[in-house]
Structure of Methylase involved in ubiquinone/menaquinone biosynthesis:
Amino acid sequence: MREFSAEYLRRTREGMWDDSREALRGLSLDDRERVLDVGCGTGELSRVLDSESPDDCEVIGCDVDVGLLSRASGHVPVVAGDATRLPFADDSFDLVVCQALLINLPDPAAAVSEFARVSSDLVAAIEPDNGAVTIESSVDDESGLATRAREAYLDGVPTDVTLGAEASDAFATADLDVVRTARYDHDRSIEPPYDESAVRSAKRKASGEGLADDRETLLAGALTPDEYDDLRAAWREMGRTVVHQMVDRSYRRTETVPFHVTVGRVRA
């Protein structure tokens, strides 16, 4: 399974569900008694589940990374565990949910089967389609370069990070009845006044640091070393334009990541 830093999870999940929680309606959170958030990371979704559930509902976070769990433990109880070998008895929860987890697993259906084992009722997966991400930017080259980098990155990732709505296939394999699907678009916008995270992101573009961090994955697909060097040079030039626009407070960017919420019911 791919590993992520607390900073990466904070940056990519920041603000998610702030504008609307309608896509979570199929989770029936208002009548849950015990909920498990698998692959909870630093607990962003766990906190949403806790706030939307009844006061007497217990929400528990579970993740294989104990370092990330330490960031979530101040909000909900947490337990260390692997998504395909959960440390819970059968039917321990009436809802088991994950967010952006299945896309990082080599066998999503195996994890969903394990979710079904420990759930007496519902299983839900909130998974992005990273192949359908869109970017609107005041820097002319940013959207096109981001698409080139994303396509090369996706080509080099060994798991299906475009899973999205196709998570329902894993549910069918796990003998779950899909009862609801919904789409939620997570918009992440940058506009003046720029916060520290936006400034840091612009500096990473200008230095090419982000592409350097992903070099191994980018080269694992069809991208050649020369093509990588050309892409990184263009990326750094684009980043310098971003910085210049930030200086005169004209830079604006919106990234939209589509998530698909699949809810299934355990068969009696």
The longest strand covers residues 176-190. The first helix runs from residue 6 to 13. The chain is about 40% helix and 25% strand. The chain has a mean pLDDT of 93.
